[in-house]
């Protein structure tokens, strides 16, 4: 049976992030985790392809902390099986290491016809892991898909770029990254959630995919994070009030002229 | 850092490439090395001269029929070969969508790291490149540095100002190479609806969000835009959920930095804020006094945009005449 693999990242829920007021550093501890938004679009697209063509659908996730709840959600949505590489040594890994570990995991999962990823993750937003993974697997890479069409042997994709749409085609197996506009991810029914509890999640350590601890984390990476701080936005936050819209408008325009951004 | 030497800049977008030269120039000076621009494709002599005027010490030109029309794979193959032959220590790539795709894959082929969408770049005491960029939808700035070379970074357009062009001497070096046919075939290219001025270049932007009830209501915006000679923008939900537009201002869309930004009916989701936070003066109009957009605004107008916008237009007409 042909197989699709979807790469899922578990990211922090960025809408819940807070700064530590004393240090200006970002606090991620205790913030809830979820499947990164665009990866969910990739998963939804994979489920649609599966339903239409009867393919098998596996997910693969790499992390240094627990991800089971997120994978359960993916299984409830419609994935058949979840593969997880879970190892504390992965902490501090950059996109190069992450994609290398994913490539090893995909190698162990076996034959595949299509890999789908989100265009980027909602937290780091680097948009690197998908293209890097395709490169490591030496298969065609197509990024920023807003439409995917599968035939027996090919994939046709409409890419959305800054100022143009591009229709491209490649032979399978291939890797495609998807944008948010490609679909609306489904919310699994209670029945689906219950059924999903019987589906299998396979968890591997690095040793199971023949990766050593030196190859991952900071020691294996090309980039290391030095610091994470919260940007200071120095805004005036002046409230302009008035009895009527005309009065408010008058006050605002006066300020804008003073600022030098209106007039002349 | 081995024998790697030189700072390179590449973008398929000529204007962005000039901006990369402005970014790379102080890095090359600090490292006491050459700044090179990479040009892929035909008809390059004039472009090479222009790049030298904008700060390149050297222009590496690869002229190959397969490079005449832009394709990520052929550019990737050419850059990989060039970099393996010449060993640059830093490669700056324009962070267009294609550029980011290209940079990730180049970094993979060269077995190194890449930091995307950098807004600041400098060389640390030990000579390593250090970059700053916004992550977590605009909630944090990450400072990163490299552990391997070449050090690859992508830089969005309008992050650096082009250098003033002036006559200087530089070398144009032609390199020939053979390139394979790409695996991905481009079947069709369709331009999006173009406006006269790109919103990224606009001095004044009036932006609408979910508080705008109907697409037709953008006529209010049009009048204000005409009066101020500004451009109209919108948030992602108006493009993706309501399908009114094909692009948006935000983290994953257009990044703007106008002198004046007026946000109307915009809640201020962090993704949107990431696309407009560099605006010089921010005005926000929203019915909800608690709207998050007010946290990043200079002038806060709590009220109905359908009343306030026409009043602003009237007032401006009075003032500007």
What's this entry about, in short?
With 264 residues, chain A is α/β, with parallel strands linked by helices.
Task: Write up what this structure looks like.
- The complex is a heterodimer of chains A (264) and B (321).
- By secondary structure, chain A is α/β, with parallel strands linked by helices.
- Chain A has helices at 37-53, 68-77, 95-109, 129-136, 190-196, 217-220, 245-259; strands at 3-7, 10-12, 18-19, 26-27, 33-35, 56-63, 81-86, 114-118, 141-150, 154-160, 164-171, 174-178, 200-204, 223-229, 238-239.
- Chain A folds into two domains: 3-220, 3-Layer(aba) Sandwich (Rossmann fold), CATH 3.40.50; 233-264, no CATH class.
- In chain A, the strands form three sheets. Chain A has a nine-stranded mixed beta sheet with strand order 11-10-9-12-8-1-6-7-13, sandwiched between helices.
- In chain A, helix 2 packs across helix 5 (190-196) and helix 3 (95-109) crosses helix 4 (129-136).
- Chain A is globular, with a radius of gyration of 22 Å.
- The relative contact order of chain A is 0.17.
- Chain B folds into two domains: 7-175, Rossmann fold (3-Layer(aba) Sandwich), CATH 3.40.50; 199-320, TPP-binding domain (Rossmann fold, 3-Layer(aba) Sandwich), CATH 3.40.50.1220.
- In chain B, strand 14, helix 7 and strand 15 form a beta-alpha-beta unit.
- With 321 residues, chain B is α/β, with parallel strands linked by helices.
């Amino acid at each position: 049976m042909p197989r699709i693999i979807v790469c899922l990242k578990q990211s922090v829920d960025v809408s819940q992030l807070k700064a530590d007021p004393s240090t200006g550093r970002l606090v991620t501890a205790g913030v809830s985790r979820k499947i990164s938004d665009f990866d969910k679009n990739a998963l939804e697209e994979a489920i649609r392809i599966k339903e239409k063509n009867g393919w098998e659908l596996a997910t693969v996730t790499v992390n240094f902390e627990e991800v089971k709840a997120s994978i359960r959600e993916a299984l409830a949505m419609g994935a058949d099986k979840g593969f997880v590489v879970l190892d504390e040594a992965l902490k501090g890994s950059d996109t190069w290491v992450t994609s290398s570990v994913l490539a090893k995991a995909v190698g162990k999962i076996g034959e595949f016809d299509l890999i789908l990823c989100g265009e980027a993750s909602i937290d780091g937003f680097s948009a690197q892991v998908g293209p890097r993974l395709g490169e490591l697997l030496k298969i065609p890479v197509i990024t920023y898909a807003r439409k995917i069409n599968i035939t027996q042997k090919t994939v046709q994709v409409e890419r959305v770029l800054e100022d143009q749409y591009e229709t491209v085609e490649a032979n399978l197996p291939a890797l495609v990254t998807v944008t948010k506009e490609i679909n609306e991810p489904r919310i699994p029914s209670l029945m689906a959630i219950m059924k999903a509890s019987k589906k299998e999640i396979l968890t591997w350590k690095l040793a199971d995919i023949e990766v050593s601890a030196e190859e991952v984390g900071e020691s294996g990476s090309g980039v290391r994070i030095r610091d994470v701080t919260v940007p200071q936005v120095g805004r005036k936050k002046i409230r302009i009030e008035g009895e009527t819209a005309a009065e408010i408008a008058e006050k605002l325009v006066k300020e804008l002229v003073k600022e030098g951004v209106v007039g002349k | 850092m081995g024998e790697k030497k030189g700072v390179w800049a590449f973008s398929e977008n000529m204007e962005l490439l000039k901006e990369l030269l402005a970014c790379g120039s102080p890095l090359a000076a600090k490292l006491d090395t050459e700044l090179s621009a990479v040009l892929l494709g035909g008809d390059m002599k004039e472009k090479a001269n222009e790049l030298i005027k904008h700060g390149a010490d050297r222009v590496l030109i690869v002229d190959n029929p397969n490079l005449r029309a832009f394709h990520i794979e052929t550019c990737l193959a050419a850059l990989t070969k060039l970099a393996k032959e010449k060993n640059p220590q830093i490669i700056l790539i324009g962070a267009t969508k294609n550029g980011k795709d290209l940079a990730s894959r180049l970094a993979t082929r060269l077995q190194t790291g890449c930091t995307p969408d950098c807004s600041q770049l400098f060389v640390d005491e030990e000579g390593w490149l250090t970059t700053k960029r916004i992550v977590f939808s605009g909630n944090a700035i990450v400072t990163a540095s490299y552990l391997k070379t070449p050090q690859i970074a992508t830089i969005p357009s309008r992050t650096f100002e082009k250098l003033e062009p002036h006559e200087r001497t530089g070398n144009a070096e032609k390199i020939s190479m053979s390139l394979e046919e790409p695996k991905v075939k481009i079947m069709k290219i369709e331009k999006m609806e173009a406006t006269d001025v790109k919103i990224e270049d606009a001095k004044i932007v009036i932006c609408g969000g979910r508080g705008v009830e109907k697409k037709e209501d953008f006529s209010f915006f049009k009048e204000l835009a005409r009066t101020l000679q500004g451009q109209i923008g919108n948030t992602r939900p108006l493009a993706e959920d309501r399908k009114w537009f094909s692009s948006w201002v935000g983290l994953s869309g257009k990044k703007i930095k106008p002198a004046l930004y007026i946000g109307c009916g915009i809640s201020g989701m962090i993704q949107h804020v990431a696309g407009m936070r560099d605006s010089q003066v921010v005005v926000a109009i929203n019915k909800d006094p608690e709207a998050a957009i007010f946290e990043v605004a200079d002038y806060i107008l709590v009220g109905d945009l359908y009343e306030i916008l026409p009043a602003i237009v009237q007032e401006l007409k009075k003032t500007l005449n």
